[in-house]
Amino acid sequence: MTRKFENGSTRLQAGAKKFEEVTGGSAAAFIESFNDVAPDFGAYILEWEFGDLYNRPGLDLRTREIVIIASCATLGSVGFGALKMHIASALKAGVTRQEIIEILMQLSFSAGLPTAIGALGVAREAFEEVDVA
């Protein structure tokens, strides 16, 4: 059963709206990026992560992005694709470049130096892409 929000929107509609607000990207393009491998997966992510979790009370968008940056970076190369997107989203939400760098440097102790070095490389790429856009 598709859960509806108080305003009548479905989880997918709410997730697509939040995704576009947070990332500045196209929800339709995000969904389509999974079509050749797992056609339903993009919609599931929008429904659950952006429709449900991002719409919960308790954390503002800036704090959510800080948490996600730390989590994705800790995953190492597995999380680096999402890390780049969330660094751009964090900048949009008001997290500074210096704060992002400090978060990633802090992880060198708990997640390992190679992971932190890799994450800083992803941050460099994300910063460059934001500068070009």
TrEMBL record:
Molecular function (GO) terms for this protein are: peroxiredoxin activity
Q: Where is the Carboxymuconolactone decarboxylase-like domain?
A: 39-125
Pfam families in UniProt: CMD
Question: Under what name is this protein listed?
Answer: Carboxymuconolactone decarboxylase family protein
